Amino acid sequence: MDTKIILDENELPKKWYNIQADLKTPLEPPMHPQTKKPLCSADLEPIFPKELIKQEMSQERYIDIPSEIRDILTLWRPSPLFRAHRLEKLLKTPAKIFYKYEGVSPPGSHKPNTAIAQAYYNMKEGIERIATETGAGQWGSSLAFATQLFDMECKVYMVRGSYDQKPYRKMMMQTWGASCVPSPSPDTNAGRTILEKNPDTPGSLGIAISEAVEDAATHSNTNYSLGSVLNHVCLHQTIIGLETQKQLEMVDETADVVIASAGGGSNCAGICFPFIKDKIDGKNPDIEILAVEPSACPSLTKGLYAYDFGDVAGLTPLLKMFTLGHDFIPPSIHAGGLRYHGMAPLISKLHADNLISSTSVYQNEVFEAAVMFARSEGIIPAPESAHAIRAVIDKAIECKKSGESKTIIFNNSGHGHFDLSSYEAYFSGSLVDYEYPADLIAESLKNLPIVA
Amino acid sequence: MTSIGFIINPYAGMGGAVGLKGTDNSIKEAISLGAEPQSATKALRFLSGLKEKDIHFFTVNGEMGENVLRKTNLSYTIVYHSEKNNLDPIIKTSAADTKKACLEIMKAHVDLLIFCGGDGTAKDVFSCTGNAVPILGIPTGVKIFSGVFATTPESAVHILSQWNGNNLIDGEVLDVDEEEYRNGNLKTTLFGIAKIPYVKGLCQCSKQVSFGDEADNMEGIANFIIEIMQDDTLYLLGAGTTTKKIADTLNISKTLLGIDAIYQKKLLKSDLNEKEILTLLNYYDKVKIIISPIGAQGFILGRGNQQISRDVIKKIGINSLIVIASESKLQNTKSLFIDTGDPDLNSSFSDSILVISNYKMGIRKKLIH
């Protein structure tokens, strides 16, 4: 079998897949942060374009991808699906391992799949400037890339831990014309308040979201854009899974396991949702969908399924999701993109409905897997993507023990060329295996009074 | 100009080479068995590595400092003469000299006191300095269980060159029972908690991932533990400043080196011995023990906190232990150790343990038993 499975440009999907149409019960609505009542479209209009709000709430199963967006996506899409022959050989596993490689995009990850769409819809509605946050820098650089294609300004609040670790991501954003500041920043009320309390904070995605939302709400020409969590973001990323399904068809393969790392949930949604449709429809009922999280921030694996704010300051709508609490600030693990207290409501719902399972892994075992992958397949993966690789390797080893020849698919969501200091930390033995003390927290919550 | 006190225990390490497991009371025996001095060579490795010109040493004459310093270009003042006081032709210096020298050095208001020796020397030095002066050991002795030592003379050079003069963390000084040790038993008690210089990891990347400083970590740990404390549970707080921070936050006066009992966020009893703990356990169904790793080897049980005995652990169960330590404290401790004295009980512990290192955060460490 070939190593690369390539689709022609004219096979680029023409529609995104909206899993909301196939949920057993509808998604619980987001709530207004003040009134605690379900949000309506008008509540979101100060920061989002109408078309994205429509997509956020849509129950249509398929939504057309405008030709202008498809045209830009062809700069790197369809992305290749690889058969990881060499990794299989290294592991001596009977499992067949395939990976979708999203690191071929100009910014180097899956993030531009939605950045292009979001910039496009904002541009169509006359927005001149977009404010956003970024964790590892993949989203910020993707939105910088996307906005400059439509002659828009872009302001990126980058989690300070990552800003310090990855100066080249900041330069990428500058190259594409965006302004990038470390978060918390003195540019917003939310940032100033946190800096006063803790001037040395490494920041978090939740804090950066607060700043970007405030920026958008206080500038009339500015909208906010989010790189993960929201339904429309998950929708745009489904192009990954839709392409993967076509590529598997080309080689007559059926997925048994689909694995993705999960921080806010967008790359997981992207590869998994089209396969979950097959599970729901009964076309592939036994397929296993696995989300992999860092043990330092295991919202899906150890969090509570409850309404919570999407940000630290409590400015965003309340979302029903698996959460560790919006005030939880994860430590500065190297997979900065996975440092988020919550999880996409759609992923959360599917997890609650037992359609997605989850696991959490430690930093050192993640990098051990990343190095095995780099040494066999050549690609140096982003630390975020390497969480999936860890689980893939564990699954392939299980197959070796059981003798099963499962077909394992995973999303290699980006390259790690800007994460080499993380690899250095791993090689020097200085990576810390952070772990959320879930049992102690659960024990203390057990005795809370039950409020009717 | 940095002022540093510098003391060498010239006999440290001599016992080890001839199989005496320590030199404290058997220097003559070690010398008669052909033991060679170890300390001076390592002391010179340390001093030769110093590039900093702006240091002045306060030291002792002869083998306790002067002889080695003379071989370098470093500036020094002799503040104590040891050999004047000792008439023994073989053993020219003693533990008493170490203590007297420390007291003289402290009069010079040094920023740091560096000593070359082992656990015995650390105890002698700390008994004089207390927390008035930070100390740092260059390991030249046989027994290095206290948490006040650099790993090598070269790492002591690194610490000294990178230290900002203010950043300090705790280091436990352990009293090792020499006679028991000679018989193959490691029996230690926690003698005190010294202040030692703290420098973040050697590599740039480890700096980038550090999660707040020592004080933030300690505060985060205390706040988290208090948040999860239950009113129906008895808490036994072990020795050290990390556990003491919990008591301080609750406005409870806790002993630094002892085990104290807390119930419903109030002090029940201080400085409990094993028997008192076992008696207390008869009255409380739910008990948690909160302890911090002790010493250079990161002992959780079995060294320095013998009050939490095998019988205590058996009674409350191994899952009732909550281990706490700041990230900086854990930085140089690759693994943690448990030795309850009962192999079966030891093996019932898992191969790793979660150490609470901040508010709602822990670090998974390898556990050796």
UniProtKB/TrEMBL annotation, chain A:
Q: Which residues form the Tryptophan synthase beta chain-like PALP domain?
A: 74-414
Q: Which GO terms describe its molecular function?
A: L-serine hydro-lyase (adding indole, L-tryptophan-forming) activity; pyridoxal phosphate binding; tryptophan synthase activity
Q: Which UniProt keywords apply?
A: Amino-acid biosynthesis, Aromatic amino acid biosynthesis, Lyase, Pyridoxal phosphate, Tryptophan biosynthesis
Name a single GO cellular component.
cytoplasm
Q: Top-level EC class, please?
A: lyase
Question: Which EC number(s) does UniProt give?
Answer: 4.2.1.20
Which pathway is recorded for this entry? Amino-acid biosynthesis; L-tryptophan biosynthesis; L-tryptophan from chorismate: step 5/5
Catalysed conversion reaction: (1S,2R)-1-C-(indol-3-yl)glycerol 3-phosphate + L-serine = D-glyceraldehyde 3-phosphate + L-tryptophan + H2O
Residues where N6-(pyridoxal phosphate)lysine is found: 111
Keyword Transferase attached: no
Give yes or no: UniProt keyword Ligase. no
Q: Which cofactor does it need?
A: pyridoxal 5'-phosphate
CDD domains listed in its UniProt record? Trp-synth_B
Q: How does it assemble?
A: Tetramer of two alpha and two beta chains.
Question: What PANTHER family does this protein's entry cite?
Answer: TRYPTOPHAN SYNTHASE, TRYPTOPHAN SYNTHASE-RELATED
**What protein family is recorded?**
Belongs to the TrpB family.
- Role: The beta subunit is responsible for the synthesis of L-tryptophan from indole and L-serine.
Q: Which HAMAP family match?
A: Trp_synth_beta
Its recorded name reads Tryptophan synthase beta chain
Q: Which gene encodes it?
A: trpB
TrEMBL record, chain B:
Give the Pfam families listed for this entry: NAD_kinase (PF01513), NAD_kinase_C (PF20143)
Record carries keyword Transmembrane helix? no
**Which GO-annotated molecular functions does the record name?**
NAD+ kinase activity
GO terms classed as biological process: NADP+ biosynthetic process
Q: What InterPro entries does this protein map onto?
A: AcoX-like, ATP-NAD_kinase_N, NAD/diacylglycerol_kinase_sf, NADK, Put_ATP-NAD_kin
Keywords, sorted A to Z: Kinase, Transferase
Protein name per UniProt: ATP-NAD kinase
- The organism encoding this protein is Methanospirillum stamsii
